[in-house]
Amino acid sequence: MSIVDIDAKIPNNVDLADDRRLQRALEGWQPKFVRWWEELGPVAFKRSPVFLRTAIDVGRDGWAHFDHVEMPEYRWGIFLAEPEPDRKIAFGDHKGDDAWQEIPGEYRADLQRLIVVQGDTEPASVEQQRQLCLTAPSLYDLRNLFQVNVEEGRHLWAMVYLLHRYFGRAGRDEADEMLERHSGDADNPRILGAFNEETPDWLSFFMFTYFTDRDGKYQLASLRESGFDPLSRTCDFMLKEEAYHMFVGATGVGRVVQRTLELMREHDTDDVHPHGGLNLDLIQRYLNFHCSVSLDLFGAETSTNAANYFAAGLKGRFGEERRDDDHVLRDATRLVPEATGEGIDAREVTQLAALNETLREDYIDDCQKGLDRWNRSITEAGVDFALRLPHIGFNRNVGTFRDHHVSPDGRLVSDDDWNANAAEWLPSDDDKDHVTSLQVSVTEPGKMAGWVAPPATGINRKPLEFDYVRL
Amino acid sequence: MSDLTITTISFETSPPQYRHWGMEIDGERATLTMNVDPSGGLRDDYELKTNSYDLGVDIELYDATQRLRFEHPEVKVVVVTGGLERIFCAGANIQMLAGATHEHKVNFCKFTNETRNSIEDATANSSQVWIAAVNGTAAGGGYELALACDEILLVDDRASSVSLPEIPLLAVLPGTGGLTRVVEKRHVRRDLADAFATRTEGIRGRQAVDWGLVDEAAPLSSFGDLVDERVAARAAESDRPDCGPGVRLEPLDCTIVGDRIDYSTVSVGIDRRAGTAAFLITAPDAPQPATPEELIDAGAGAWILRCARELDAAMLHLRFNETAIGTWVFRTEGDPEAVAATEQLLADHPDHWLVREVRLYWARTLKRLDLSARSLVTLVEPGSCFAGILAELVLAADRSFMLDGTWEDLDDPPPPATIRLSAANLGWFAMSNGLSRLQTRFWGRPAALEAAESTIGTDLEASEAAEAELVTFTPDDLDWDDEVRVALEERNSFSPDALTAMEANCRFVGPETPETKIFSRLSAWQNWIFQRPNAVGPDGALQRFGTGARPDFDTRRV
Known about the structure:
The structure holds two protein chains of two kinds.
Chain A: H1 20-40, E1 49-55, E2 64-70, H2 108-128, H3 139-166, H4 168-180, H5 202-224, H6 229-267, H7 280-296, H8 304-311, E3 333-339, E4 344-350, H9 355-380, E5 405-406, E6 412-413, H10 415-425, H11 429-437
Chain B: E1 21-26, E2 29-34, E3 52-53, H1 55-70, E4 77-82, E5 87-89, E6 91-92, H2 94-99, H3 102-126, E7 129-134, E8 137-139, H4 141-148, E9 151-155, E10 161-163, H5 166-170, H6 178-185, H7 190-196, E11 203-204, H8 205-210, E12 216-218, H9 220-237, E13 255-257, E14 260-262, E15 266-271, E16 276-282, H10 292-298, H11 303-321, E17 327-333, H12 336-348, H13 353-370, E18 375-380, E19 386-387, H14 392-396, E20 399-402, E21 419-420, H15 437-441, H16 446-453, E22 459-460, H17 462-467, H18 480-493, H19 496-507, H20 514-529, H21 533-536, H22 541-544
Parallel strand pairs in B: 2-4, 3-6, 4-7, 5-8, 7-9, 8-10, 9-12, 16-17, 17-18, 18-20, 19-21
Antiparallel strand pairs in B: 1-2, 10-11, 13-14, 14-15, 15-16, 21-22
Helix pairs in contact in B: 1-3, 3-13, 3-20, 6-20, 11-13
């Protein structure tokens, strides 16, 4: 049982007090992090007490503690899930070997790359979302935004701990660079393209937390399988926090849909824009956009890096140990989509090469679940409409579909067809203008902006009228 | 591997036909933008992703280096950059290497090295300075391309790195001069070079500058300004003319029928049974340009340029497409006076840009001959014209035969063959060791060198040429046919590997230069590694790369 030292300057359950050198290194990084938060974290409410949950323990019971906290005072810490005694590597060429407690020299570069790419996304999303606090539709939502932000900050801490603890000087340099790259900065952009786009409005935020944070879930879940045990345990704990981010997305989109249905019923019309709502087809277009750019984050259909990471035991598949195969995949094959001039076909490749595609498909299955819930509420409202995930080839900029246009229902279409229909399939300028026009800051406890329904319940059994953020 | 071998490889191309490079000329600046067509590989069992290259990509690069020098005298600076987002160049394509025959791999590396050397030659001798604008990650051969440039400017976006990951990822060496240039040219400290060459992720931005791996780093927003600034500074130092006209390199007139290859001044006859390729080079038979202006007017039609291009093309064709033809036999035909007269222009106007280009091109072409893994035999017979430039073919040979006397049995015997040295043999055409072929021949024997040099301008018959130590054997017509035949047949019976190794050892005496190190030390080790199971065996790194399977090394040090 690891002991959580919650009163330390850097709360942790990794015995930081016993590792003076590491403690010194991290305490050297901490002020840089705080400075980064001040400069590039949320643009307002910097000193407002926010009703935040803080990780204080990694055990099953009560790992989170709720209280009003000024964000810069948030107890960002280092928490790894409980070690699994005698853990073995579950896949790849090292399957059955003891999990590594230190990085194998052979895999230093690959592990460092995986951790840096994952770590870079965490502060990136905070930067992308920093303006949103000015237009939160309620105090409840404002608080949720900040909760997501501080936890992304903590995820950065988690990755930075690994870099400092296991990767020497190069790791420390990488940790510094995490704070020196900035989302959308022309000179020092974030590593992944999708993380250099601003999140301009709350509909986009809900979609982002639903789709893009879910990519994060799948990446973290694959890294949780890692033979490098500290990475595995780190990701395991991060997944607990990530689940809440997706909850914000799933309930956020659900509440938008619900409000739209209310307005449709109230005014007996499909067009609720004049009434301050968001039409279902607009919601579908936002969904198309965010889903497709998130699919790109999984990479090309075939990848030698993914194959190498798996064979080396660095990054597994989602739910690796629950899968019913040999977990080595040396000879297994599968089909991956292939777009040609004639249409969308499939080609057979080794499963090792196709791991990105396998993870992408698992992700798509997971995405569908939220849509099913939203569609139930649409059906229950007696409206003949269903939200759908776009085809896997729609609006893709990575992999086989990059050079082809595919409609949301999976037809290969010409450039002309695409241009003629793009406004039906992706958010148009009119859509964006309308969504922007509805973005107003609502700070009276219990009140909601007119385009989104209130949540079913408050946070930590508090009522909706609770002052989630004290202004 | 026969299913993976390529049919005949052609080296003939031109900018409108390029699939992988953009060439943009803007006054004194040319920009070469690498934008490799993934489906444009020479074989179809690999995709040229992320600006990785194969021989086809490099053939276009070589073509561009030649055209920039001859067709664009006004270009003073050449900027090489990448056309893909965040990628400069990923180096040689690994699937291509894994599927290539051994001799293709070796020939490919040699050719890419020669092209990198010609880039350095343009900077050093032609006042056409190459600058690498590394606007994204440069890995392996990508960084080696940058290393061939005189300045390396790296974008500092906290992601783009330069790297030589061959050893950790592929268990081979950076094969295009990378290691040599890092320590010999950029003077990177040996221990840092060691760290660099074993670090797959490479080195970024400021640290790359600190280690000496690049010259300057700048953020994206000012990167273009930095490149402009360096172009302006280097262009100001150039002595190239401000405007043309240049000389258009028209497609070569070449006919290949059966085992005969005919150009206008060079022809090659292949004898497969004997394993020989017989080169015949003919002297100009019409008046040639006597002034630089006439040379520009004559352009690619001038014998002195045409002959170099044809010899270059013939050698490349044979190297790649006729690997089993192990001996190249050189003869010439024509009037030695005509060769000497043609060459006089090069002696009289060494500072004219085009004269300089022609001389440098002959130097590179003769170097290519030295570096060809073939036995080189030169036959000096009556009616030949081994004067000046063409006398280099005698000096370049592993073995030469000169007929003593003439063909006595003919009714009207021609005058005896002669060899005539000229100023051209005294240092116009340095070998990779930095010495002329004459200096190399008499390495450590200054008196013999002086004696040979003193014959300049004199037509030497066989006995005199032998006395001056310019030829190996001088049989008379009684013995000639048998001597030559037996020598060639015997040569053809030896192990080609042993011959290549022996020839390389004998050809390059004297000092080491970065070039000799690249072609001997680096290439020799690389070629050894290319044969070793740790790289190319079924469990080796090159074969397993990209499959997800890890290489299984034989850990015994050799």
